[in-house]
Amino acid sequence: MASAAQSPVYRATTTAPVNIAVIKYWGKRDTTLNLPTNSSLSVTLSQKSLRTLTTASASADYPAEDTLTLNGKPQDIQSSKRTLACLSSLRSLRKALEDADASLPKLSAFPLRIVSENNFPTAAGLASSAAGFAALVRAVANLYQLPQSPRELSRIARQGSGSACRSLMGGYVAWRTGEQVDGSDSLAEEVAPASHWPEMRALVLVVSAEKKDVPSTEGMQTTVATSDLFATRAQTVVPERMDAIEAAIRDRDFPKFAEITMRDSNTFHATCLDSWPPIFYMNDVSRAAVRLVHDINRAVGRTVAAYTFDAGPNAVIYYEEKDSELVAGTVKAILGSSASGWEGPFYEPLAQLNTPGVALDKIDTRVLDVLKSGVSRVILTGVGEGPVTVEDHLVTEKGEAIIN
Amino acid sequence: MASAAQSPVYRATTTAPVNIAVIKYWGKRDTTLNLPTNSSLSVTLSQKSLRTLTTASASADYPAEDTLTLNGKPQDIQSSKRTLACLSSLRSLRKALEDADASLPKLSAFPLRIVSENNFPTAAGLASSAAGFAALVRAVANLYQLPQSPRELSRIARQGSGSACRSLMGGYVAWRTGEQVDGSDSLAEEVAPASHWPEMRALVLVVSAEKKDVPSTEGMQTTVATSDLFATRAQTVVPERMDAIEAAIRDRDFPKFAEITMRDSNTFHATCLDSWPPIFYMNDVSRAAVRLVHDINRAVGRTVAAYTFDAGPNAVIYYEEKDSELVAGTVKAILGSSASGWEGPFYEPLAQLNTPGVALDKIDTRVLDVLKSGVSRVILTGVGEGPVTVEDHLVTEKGEAIIN
């Protein structure tokens, strides 16, 4: 095909971050709109370590159906109601712009070609759907030159994957449950930018993969429908914790932030265990990570580390940069060469470290053994920014997907 | 010493059973009186498999201090407030009899020599304190010829160890939380005798011992003080379950009994996990036992097995005798010769069995591996009777302890 014969290809490319909740989202009050039963709060993780890169492109010459390629593999958009809902909402907003300004190209009528890739292996067990849907929504919104704010776009991303709405912003992000039945007020908003508390670090302990037993959407439904303890968490416990952790973030009060984070992870997993049939995401390696954090905090004499677990066995350990040696340095000494991932932009304070920050005899010996044999990889990262517009497109000027 | 020169030695000997709760006791509203925050219900296990044997003896010639020997080891009674509380209550009741009838020997004034032994190894990880305190109270009450009913004596045994009050009776036993601050109405009572539903079987999977991290008394206090979900279980969930499981026992409705049993075990462990710091009693082997039971029930197409876990990793699996092959037969096929304990009075229906009741390809392969490597011993038992007066005393006519 000669380039000159083609209609223009419109492109926009963005990155989007992973986020890890400290007040967990678990339970939907509306499964179509992805409306949650409780508010949640997360830390956006640095894209220097983990990010999704997505290019959205549109052209009159593309074959009639929208396409999405993820990590080199074509995805079946038509059977993904969630993806269709996002694209449909974005097209409506573009259509409104075009209706108001006849000079605009009719992008809303063109097929989309979307290409996306993660810079982290799926095997890492990190929820990639949040970054994925945030990048998709942000990329298409950029392509369509939509004026909506990240907060307004979060309503759309939420329909792709609930936690995706929190990946449209950097720093410390709350997703308000909202009260409206149409979900119009169930939106993400920045509680504080990354620059407010940039010292926050996160160390992911990737636990040797066991197949996840219950996917989160199914797990949530089971918990909402069957756990006798669930309503107490959603209605009473979480609202109090949201207020308290927002205050802790405002005050950069790590011990308070840490305790709420750990307790909410525990309460969330407690409601999973209380479901019928019961749901277990944590295993013996996860439990060893819990003990490790308690042992480190006890040995240091103040709370320097906080664990949290999503719907899987991986531990995410939050700490402040000044305590890198005490927390990450101790983990490094425990794992030694049995885990990969001691590298990257957040590794610098640890690179020269050869002794544990906390003497290993302060830690339960079973914990040491279980972690050493059960953690295959770590990811060292920290709080970071929201989506960034970039020019390294995954679709050529001629509309061809670039598969790396 | 010539026998003729001695004062008489009075003796009484009893056995007492272990009980395993299906609605768990967890949380005290009064730590001195051992008053619970919620009612509980247990199945008394057969003494053909597990029992404590205790002789209480009294003599004017004994040295002044009461003594207690357990499994051949002298116990320090004076530092055990709980034992002292039981003995003091029993002496008061005896004293009242003596005051009313001058012809009675003044046993209440004599030192006690109590000798006790369990027929099961402590390593089995079964709560032996319930059987132990029940046997102690029953033996001394027999020695003192007290007229009080088991229900009335349960008030005393409860002060030794909460769950001990349920071991004073056979069959299906409820411990009512009561309302009085003095604990006078916090008593055990028989919901149904063993003969009402004699087909109930219990298979204990003894998980290779890890040191118990948090003793139950301490764990309970932590949960009551810190778990945000605890009050919901104690105040709302358990009262409904007590009604429902008593109806299930009345109707001998195993599937209903089983579901309530499993759910209450899960809810109890959920409140442990929700405690601060969190308490974990179940480990990966326990989780595998949970999965096994769900897989067996799914494969059979009806609920034939129910798991429950106390404050430790051991699984107790309840089933009905008619389903021995489906439940115990499947476990036997999985464990093969890797676990001991396939023997005893309840083994008969399984002795000739060489194939699993449920095809092993219906069970998650990881579950098979984890159980095979993690279960060291089984105990096959069933519902049984309460304490029995016996004549094989552990103290001679001359007052000497018999240490077997």
Explain what you see.
The structure is a homodimer of 404-residue chains. With 404 residues, chain A is α+β, with helices and mostly antiparallel strands. Chain A has two domains: 3-195, Ribosomal Protein S5, domain 2; 200-382, GHMP kinase, C-terminal domain (Alpha-Beta Plaits). The relative contact order of chain A is 0.18. The first copy, chain A, is built from ten helices and 16 strands. In chain A, helix 7 (284-300) crosses helix 10 (365-374). In chain A, strands 8-7-9-6-1-16 form a six-stranded mixed beta sheet. A four-stranded antiparallel beta sheet of chain A has the order 2-5-10-11. In chain A, 34% of the residues lie in helices and 20% in strands. The longest helix of chain A has 21 residues, at 230-250. Mean pLDDT of chain A is 94; it is low at 1-5. Chain A binds chain B through residues 210, 228-229, 232-233, 236-237, 259, 262-263, 266-267, 269-271, 273-278, 280, 283-284, 287, 290, 294, 366, and chain B through 210, 228-229, 232-233, 236-237, 259, 262-263, 266-267, 269-271, 273-278, 280, 283-284, 287, 290, 294, 366.
Features:
six-stranded mixed β-sheet, Ribsml_uS5_D2-typ_fold_subgr (chains A, B), 2 domains, alpha+beta, 34% helix, 20% strand, 16 strands, 10 helices, four-stranded antiparallel β-sheet, disordered N terminus, 404 residues, Alpha-Beta Plaits, homodimer, Ribosomal Protein S5, domain 2
Give the largest chain-chain interface (CB within 8 Å). Answer: A-B, 28 and 28 residues
Shape of chain A: globular
Write the H/E string of chain A, N to C: EEEEEEEEHEHHEEEHHHHEEHHHEE
User: What is the fold named in CATH at topology level of the largest domain in chain A?
Assistant: Ribosomal Protein S5, domain 2
CATH class of the largest domain in chain A: Alpha Beta
Q: What is the oligomeric state here? A: homodimer
Query: Major β-sheet of chain A, in short?
Result: 6 strands, mixed
* Strand segment count of chain A: 16
- Helical content of chain A stands at 25-40%
Count of DSSP H/I helices of chain A: 10
Pathway (chains A, B): Isoprenoid biosynthesis; isopentenyl diphosphate biosynthesis via mevalonate pathway; isopentenyl diphosphate from (R)-mevalonate: step 3/3
Domain Mvd1 C-terminal (chains A, B): 202-389
EC number (chains A, B): 4.1.1.33
Keywords (chains A, B): ATP-binding, Lipid biosynthesis, Lipid metabolism, Lyase, Nucleotide-binding, Steroid biosynthesis, Steroid metabolism, Sterol biosynthesis, Sterol metabolism
